[in-house]
Amino acid sequence: MNLQEVKAFLTAKPGYCKEGAKRLRNHLKNKGFETTINICKVALKECREELKSTFNKTKSRSPKILIYDIETSPNLGWFWRAGYKQNISHDQIIKERGIICVSYKWLGEDEVYNLTWDKDQNDYFLVEQFVEVLNESDLIVAHNGDRFDIKWLKTRALYHRIPMLPNYKQFDTLKVAKSKLYLNSNRLDYISKFLGHEGKIKTTIDLWLDIIFKNDREALNKMLEYCDEDVRQLEKVYNELKYLDNPSYHAGVIFGEVKQTSPITGTFDIEHIKTVSTNRGTVKHIMKDLETQRIFEMSDTNYKKYLEINK
């Protein structure tokens, strides 16, 4: 693709203007288009300048919330026989497990992006590019993200010597479902259907076997469809479960406002619901964000300052 063709693609899909040149080239390559990093850099720069004035007028004051999911490969190794209670040592690993692909989207936007390991099944490029995405976020959302996804990413980043932030603000839909609800199953597929949504795409282990042992590109594309749909369903589940937990960030502080604003929208458009106290006598105030109807807690000190500000 030449410069004008890449710019036309970005005009049709402006969400890609947030991508880096390497990620944009990789996305275009996955769609069957060949171009260079330099062309992508120039196209991104020109499109961002064209969109800048419009963006400044319509820029959302919502925090950047990243919805993501990863698919991984197993370790490959040798063993003498199959059966229960077998002791397989790490010395028997022939090939270390890796990340096959990652799909992600920004909350409220339509576009779902994805990255895959390369033709040699090396996930260096995937991890390098996705760490950049993670670092742009104010909150990351995954199902079982605390125990699985983020630890996988940190492990592979360490293996490749790719630096990551020490901590990321996370909302784990599995953790919230288990701690706040009493569902028949805490699997993403079940929760999605329980809430009236479509659920996950059905697949089998054959998809992984075709990718790992046959390097089958068609199977990899099917896995991307599977992973992309997981992210769409995860966003729907998050949008309903987020009301069960306190906000993990403070939008007002992120956008330079005072702490007495709503942590969800960063505005003073809030309402006092009730005053509560702990068993030690610490006073807290239950507040409601009137734009989103979400409930949050405010300390007594901040509530008194809020009253002073809004006199």
Description:
This protein is of the alpha+beta class and 311 residues long. The protein folds into 3 domains: 1-59; 61-75 and 92-245, Nucleotidyltransferase, domain 5 (2-Layer Sandwich); 251-309. The chain contains 11 helices and 10 strands. It has helices at residues 3-12, 21-30, 37-58, 124-136, 145-159, 173-180, 188-194, 205-214, 217-241, 251-254, 300-309, and strands at residues 65-72, 76-77, 93-95, 99-106, 113-116, 139-142, 170-172, 270-277, 283-289, 295-299. The strands form 3 sheets. It has a 5-stranded mixed β-sheet, with helices on both faces. The chain has a 3-stranded antiparallel β-sheet with strand order 8-9-10. The chain has a two-stranded antiparallel sheet with strand order 2-3. Helix 7 (188-194) packs across helix 9 (217-241) and helix 8 packs across helix 9. Mean pLDDT is 91; it is low at 55-60.
